[in-house]
Write a structure and sequence with these properties.
single chain, mainly alpha, 3 helices, 0% strand
């Protein structure tokens, strides 16, 4: 998921442009267009790997939040 936080002095136009820039940079649109007609179900192994990756990421994020890093 792509998130863009708005600061107090940011205009709506600036927030929208930064969001669109992040979407373009993440290549999300191209990947969705590529798989829009055919998507294969994720195997159990891939589900487990994805869950492990997500758990590690969330653990690192909570540690970084406690430390105060962005």
């Amino acid at each position: 998921m792509i998130l863009v936080k708005r600061n107090q002095d940011d205009s709506t136009q600036k927030v929208i442009s930064s969001f669109l820039k992040r979407v373009k940079k993440s290549n999300l649109i191209a990947r969705k267009r590529k798989t829009q007609h055919f998507t294969r179900d994720i195997s159990d192994l891939e589900k487990n790997r994805k869950a492990v990756r997500k758990a590690e990421y969330l653990a690192n994020q909570t540690v970084a939040d406690r430390i105060g890093k962005k």
